[in-house]
What does this fold into?
Amino acid sequence: MDETTFLVTLLDEYWNTAVTALGSEIPAIHRVKPQIMDIRSMDSTRPNGRGGNRVRISSAKETTADGVTPSKDLIVVMEDSQNIEYPTRDWSVRNETFNMSISIRTKQDDRRTNDNARVAPSGSTFGRDRIENLYKIVRHILETNRRGWFRSAGSLEENIKHIVFGSRTESNDKRSRIFGYKINVTLKRFAVSL
It folds into this structure.
């Protein structure tokens, strides 16, 4: 499992647990599970889509199940760079550092539940409130696993020793009514035998 898939899997597997752990800090309307995907994914969310080109983030309806609502909000994970160091004299081990980006996107739109009732609050702060709460959930997952996460996938084992939550920048598009954050994350693996 590569590092991007590792981070996508971490967010996906811990999402509902994080929403539950944060409790009332996340308002009921924002207790959602977004689409979490790898930037390299060739999947399409559009019917008869070509794949790999567009993802729909606007959702007319949201329905809650088990306290968490699947939503069309989007989290995309990508690797920015990798650095390798050989800390021993005989170069028998290496330390690996992976600089990752997590992009969170939501749209300011009028959402309705399946019974056609308007989702509240629907006013001018819905997108801003949604992006803030998605950010809190991502931050909680990464900070909870800051000392690493060991996962066995088949016969391969992935062992990231440190997960460092880094800087956040805004990336909004007012014309398209899209709110976004870009988060920098560092994954570290130490003393990998050669």
